[in-house]
Amino acid sequence: MSATDDQPTLQAPRPPAQRRLGLSGKLLLLTIPLVMIALLMIYVPSIANFWTNRLNDRLAAANTAALVLDAAPLGMVPDSLARQILTSVGARAVAIKMGQQRRLLASANLPAAIDRDIDMRTLTVWSAIVESFETMVDTGNQTIRVVGPAPGGAHFIEVVVDEKPLRLAMYRFSSNLLLVSLGIAMLAAGLVYLALHYLFVRPMRRLTANLVGFHENPESAARIIVPSQRGDEIGVVERELSDMQRDLVSMLSQKSRLAALGLAVSKINHDLRNLLASSQLLSDQLASVPDPRVQRFAPKLMRSLERAIDFCQSTLSYGRAQEAEPDRRMIQVEPVVTEVRESAGLAADASITWINAIERGLSIDADPDQLFRVLLNLVRNAVQALDNRPKGDAATLQIRITGRREGSVAIIEVSDTGPGVPAKAREHLFEAFQTSGRQGGSGLGLAIAAELVRAHGGDIHLVEGTIGATFRVSIPDRPVELQSVRNERARA
Fold first, then answer.
1. Pair 416, 362: CB distance under 8 Å
2. 135 with 170: CB under 8 angstroms?
3. I need a surface site. Which of 105, 124, 142, 265 has the fewest CB within 10 A?
């Protein structure tokens, strides 16, 4: 034996979980760029509007100065007054065009050349944005000629200004705007973050923690999440998760009980099979007894013991493996029904009326042993249903078994006059360990019967609208068997 056979296999330890960014961190990282984008969308038109208003203010001041300068006698203005007016306007020169004449109203320290021309009459939003940012990125002290509409009959007015004071004013405005906007944005981002954190992140953390805890011990009912009263999608998830965990806990508990039951039955089965084998040896000795009654019942006893041994050999085959393939052949239904009645103890029971309505000569393409098990389970269920009713006239306690053929399908019905099947039990009628509410039932009879019938390619179901309960078994003939029967009938 190798070392791996002597020692249990050890699972490799799980690597430590890497610290990942949680939902709160991701939300914060997502909020920051969104706030910056919002600030940028506010800042761009704001700075362009400030630049435009600043130039318009210069034109308005130039218009006022033009009125003063134009009102002077013979247009003669002292240089000191002209400089004062230009200083108040914040310009180097003011000119106006009237008709075909262009007049320079005042000037001081004019440069040799103008660096940029801006016509406020044709300025668009996009060009205002571009021009404002060009002003901010420029260096030095360039001169700008600004052209705008003039009052009265003049065509336009021109004013030459320095770019540097305008740029410095734009810097101050930008810093003030950014500080105010940043404060407002941080406050709004904080409120949004807190709202999203309490509305979404905390519930998601609660769901995550519950899933992790439930994964550690899925059989504990204490790990089931308690849903909140929320009416949104998270509330729906909590309620659905609670229902799913509750169903899973119930299913795992049932599986655990079934596993323990399977182990116990396997141990019992081992000893029971030996006891049945001993009983079979004793029944073989009864066959040599000359008593006619013994000779009549000994074969049936031996047959019952053989079936019991076979059943023990395949105990729990429903949950552990599939039933054996049916050994199908054309058989008469009447003898099987008679044997079912005797095995169920109804032959000598006068308290329950047995009604046999099998068509004469009805044959079925089935495994005789499996058909016997199907009918015996149905008849025993009927007996249990009648046992729950008060004892009275035997005419009111009846078990009826009917059989007929519809084309290539043989139909057998087992009916009783009991209380019927409860509506709650009908949902899982043919599932294992789902009893119909009767005392003493194991919940396997109908499940085994359904499995055996399906192995024949047939169907079993509860017939609605009948007194008590009526189960209908339909088994179709195999095409090969049906053709052989027709050939035999043709030869006969």
1. no
2. yes
3. 124
Domain ranges of the chain: 23-188, 320-491
Q: What is the pLDDT of residue 339?
A: 87
| 35 close to 189: Cβ distance less than 8 angstroms | yes
Show Cβ contacts of residue 178 under 8 Å, excluding neighbours closer than 6 positions: 39, 43
Quick one: tokens of 302?
């031996």
Per-residue confidence (pLDDT) for residue 4, from 0 to 100: 41
**What topology is assigned to 320-491 in CATH?**
Heat Shock Protein 90 (3.30.565)
d(CA 330, CA 45): 93
Using pLDDT thresholds of 50, 70 and 90, give the confidence band for residue 112: confident
Residue whose entry in the numeric block shows the structure tokens 């406050």: 187
pLDDT tens for each residue of 292-314: 766 666 676 666 766 666 666 55
Tell me: the pLDDT tens digits for 63-81? 877 776 766 655 566 667 6
Nearest to 132 by CA among 37, 42, 36, 44: 44
Give the chain's mean pLDDT: 77
pLDDT mean over 365-374:
91
Residue-by-residue DSSP string for 299-364? HHHHHHHHHHHHHHHTTTHHHHSPPPPP--EEEEHHHHHHHHHHHTT-SS-SSSEEEEEEPTT-EE
